[in-house]
Specification:
2 copies of one chain form a homodimer. Chain A is built from 9 helices and 16 strands. Chain A has 338 residues and is an alpha/beta fold. The first copy, chain A, has 2 domains: 4-127 and 323-337, 3-Layer(aba) Sandwich (Rossmann fold); 131-318, Dihydrodipicolinate Reductase, domain 2 (2-Layer Sandwich), CATH 3.30.360.10. The first copy, chain A, has a 6-stranded parallel β-sheet, with helices on both faces. A 6-stranded mixed β-sheet of chain A has the order 11-9-13-16-15-14. In chain A, strands 3-4 form a two-stranded antiparallel ribbon. In chain A, α8 (284-287) links the parallel β14 (270-272) and β15 (293-300). The radius of gyration of chain A is 20 Å and the shape is globular. Chain A starts with a strand and ends with a helix. The interface between A and B is large, with 60 and 60 residues.
């Protein structure tokens, strides 16, 4: 397998750092790696597999000779530099929302629609974290039984808002213990011992926030199924780096919890934690730093007639499967093409 | 109005303490108050409205001359002493789950079924906290439009497990900041920066936990409607004293968010916080120490055909409306009888 020239665009962020871990842990074949970030971070040092690299400011000239550019930058930076990377011959795997709903860009969760990755025109979009974590276990159920409707409520970690948000949550714990005013630079409110509706803009027409709209629209695109009905309520909880989701499913036919368990037991990227006796189910701390999406509380929903309803509760690492790991898995799909 | 002889059974607990606050703040007409608790707390002092009382051990003889006994004790203690209180002539308002599903005991949320309180045979049950908080805003919508189905996911505070659980959550924050092993006496697991499926027993047949089963069964009893379909997922989040709930409703007819807002604006015990522009919606810290249930994120659910679906997010103080306040409101209903 030809070793790749890889660029990390936005290497200093929480996702950028985890991209490096994933590349290393998965033995991604690398001949050369470029550490790119904004001017603010240029000149800083970055370790990777025993070598020290100097972080360079990302410019339109950063991508000469690059095979794969893993982007984890802001939307406007991405819009500026991703086309330059494509022009230089790189394939971009982009973590931002900039290209997700662009019909010319595939939106890929490898466990769901790996083949779509190979139809790219230079840019492949990595889906929203909450969407990925939901799609990994719901897709095999959709394939097996046909999902008519998803009602999801999320319990989202600080990490989705970046490393500074995680630091602020921990700082608020320290402030609370010291009985000091809570540091509120990122979220502008109490986060420790509190929770709040996801801090993305609300569409004035639908009254859904951007995170919820992403879960609805991206799922339809990834599943290539405009008819699947999805509603989402996205909530930020005081947790560091793993998202949980309470998922209520309506199937097109009667489905039992045993059937769901049988499908999920063989589903890629899924682990079942469903120990009723010991009250042990998916939790953020169990999912943190793990690759799989964890599923539990699988049970028949008595509020739906005809046995078509299933409830489940899931947890997945927001920085790994919700972002960096998924992006590196997409990059691996590109290797298989060659 | 005749002043009442009131007994507080379980006065030292989180709910017991809040019962005293509610009686005081609402000027409940009291001629005499008895502070009752287990033998462990007997002899301790309890302040109330400028006087100091000595806590007595609850026995079967504690209720002589008592008009109203507000119980907030364990299930077995309640089963032992509530009948003695009734025998002595008191009316019991009980916070435990001991009598909730007993067909001879009314289960009362005053905003929903106040009249049921007056049909008691000595014991009136106070519903589960999550049930009360959900029922206050859903009932007026059910009356106005007919609710066919409720899908609820909860975000429950430590207070539901008592004062010691709240203290453990705060202790874990201190442990975390000090990089010490986390104190895990109550929940047996990391709670700070984590969340977990509600720590009540799972029914091996339905796979629903007790908290979820309460929300399903109690709602049917309180609404006096066996046909309302309810499913619940109950989750403990690292929050101190207010529960939140993500509530997805299916109505028997098309309903708009404007119609929902109009009904809730006039509903007793409900306050609307639904400020999309400033991203301000119900939060635990906003609901804490408040009487009302707060409702926001009111929007049309696009996953339901025909405009019959509404999403909303609610928050209510678990110790107040979820327990002590509701019990005192029930006691107030008894006064109106005389």
């Amino acid at each position: 397998m030809k070793k790749q020239v890889v660029a990390i665009a936005g290497v200093t962020g929480a996702v950028g750092q985890e991209l490096l871990n994933c590349l290393k842990n998965r033995n991604f074949p690398i001949s050369e790696i470029r550490m790119l970030a904004s001017a603010r971070s240029a000149g800083k040092k970055q370790e990777f597999m025993g070598k020290t690299y100097t972080i360079e400011e990302m410019t339109e000239d950063s991508f000469e000779g690059v095979d794969i550019a893993l982007f984890s930058a802001g939307g406007s930076q991405t819009k500026q530099f991703a086309p330059a990377a494509v022009k230089a011959g790189a394939v971009v795997v982009d973590n931002s929302s900039a290209y997700r709903m662009d019909p010319t860009c595939p939106l890929v969760v490898p466990e769901v629609n790996a083949a779509a990755a190979l139809t790219h025109n230079g840019i492949i979009a990595n889906p929203n974290c909450s969407t990925i974590i939901m799609n990994v276990p719901v897709w095999p159920l959709h394939q097996a039984f046909g999902v008519d409707r998803i009602v999801v409520s999320t319990y989202q970690a600080a990490s989705g808002a970046g490393a500074a948000a995680m630091a602020e949550l921990e700082q608020q714990a320290a402030d609370w213990v010291d009985k000091k005013p809570l540091t509120q630079d990122i979220f502008g409110r109490q986060y420790i011992f509190n929770l709040f509706s996801h801090n993305s803009a609300i569409d004035p027409e639908t009254l859904y926030n951007e995170e919820e709209t992403k879960m609805i629209k991206e799922t339809k695109k990834i599943f290539d199924d405009e008819d699947i009905n999805v509603t989402a309520t996205c909530v930020r909880v005081p947790v560091l780096r793993a998202h949980c989701e309470s998922v209520n499913l309506t199937f097109k036919q009667p489905v039992t919890p045993e059937q769901v368990r049988a499908v999920l037991a063989n589903a890629p990227g899924v682990s079942i934690i469903d120990d009723a006796e010991n009250n042990q189910f998916p939790e953020p701390v169990l999912a943190s730093d793990k690759d799989d999406v964890f599923v539990g509380r699988i049970r028949q929903d008595p509020s739906q007639k005809g046995g078509v309803g299933i409830e489940m509760f899931i947890a997945g690492d927001q920085i790994l499967k919700g972002a960096a790991l998924n992006a590196v898995q997409v990059a691996e799909l590109l290797l298989t093409k060659e």
